[in-house]
Amino acid sequence: MHEGNLLRPFCLSAGVKGRAYSFPLQRRITDFGADASFSRASEKLKEHYGITIPVSSIQRITEGHAENIKENEKLKTDIPDERGVEYVIAEVDGTMIPIVDTFESMDEEGRPIDKRKTREVRWTEGRLALAHPKGSVTPIFGATLGDQDEAGNQLAHCAILSGTVEQTKVHCVGDGAPWICDQVDRVFGPQAVFLIDFYHLCDYLAAASKICAPDHPPAWLEEQKQRMKENNAFDVLNALKPHIEPDSVPDKDAPVRKCYRYIKNRPGQFDYKGALDADLPIGSGEIESAHRYVIQERLKIAGAWWKEDNAQNMLSLRTLRANNNWDQYWDSFYKKAA
Q1: How far is CA 277 from CA 135, 226, 272, in A?
Q2: What is residue 172's three-state secondary structure?
Q3: Percent of the chain residues past pLDDT 70, beyond the cut
Q4: Nearest CA among 127, 123, 259 for reference residue 182
Q5: 133 DSSP β-pair partners
Q6: How much is the pTM?
Q7: CA-to-CA distance for 200 and 54, rounded, in angstroms?
Q8: How many whole angstroms separate alpha carbon 128 and alpha carbon 188?
Q9: Do 291 and 95 form a contact (C-beta atoms < 8 A)?
Q10: What is the mean pLDDT of residues 261-273?
Q11: Which of 64, 68, 187, 265 is the most exposed place for a label (fewest CB within 10 A)?
Q12: In whole numbers, what is the pLDDT of the chain averaged over residues?
């Protein structure tokens, strides 16, 4: 005791308070909690450090740092007028994330009936964006559970950090979701070209080939693929047109009509020849792959249901790690806490 205060020499020398966790330990807890379920993180801490930490504490610390990361995010959406790169490749796409909502049961006067909470589960689209200069294999990521405009802002942010300026040509590839093309137009305007994912288009052509050329669908499909790569979409539409199903046939049973409409309704989005001549990608496999290792690997593990705020915070944590800003975050955290 010292002047009525209890002194704990070890706590003073180690820089940790009673019933608290040191910053180096918080870093390790968050490291495991970012990659595996919180129960699995507890097992890993026991295996590697010989310490037992409650799952609830691991969850609280990991989600706390994830929230801090989210709160300190600053998006850049104004494209600078300075020296940058010639080409930036940008992609954005969505994946569904399991969300759980909890609320108390209320009586007719709005008073809680009891302390039990009702749970409802649903799926919400998480949108992941990436961008990198042409020739780079190190993309910059951004992710959100927000609306389409927020996803567009994330895409612009990634592109700007990748070197986009007013003179940069932005090459965007995505599936046929209208919101993606709309956001590319909104945030980049005429400096961007949007290209429909070639392999997504091929799915439509493959389904139509069985109707248009029942005796030799593979050969017919290859012919149309080559036409599309040579920017001869008009010839492909002419090949489809005689086989379009009657209006009485529902869409699910009308692959030719669906393919024809898919191509006809997206003029200017099939410049595969221009992309290939410029050595630019014609497929969006990069963003689809990134969904697996940035989002799904943690937020869609078996049995995981997230509160919406926690899911958004974990997205920020996962993208921070994917962007190699892990050390920078902890250095900043230590300085602020000092």
Answers
A1: 15, 14, 8
A2: strand
A3: 90
A4: 127
A5: 88
A6: 0.88
A7: 46
A8: 17
A9: yes
A10: 96
A11: 265
A12: 91
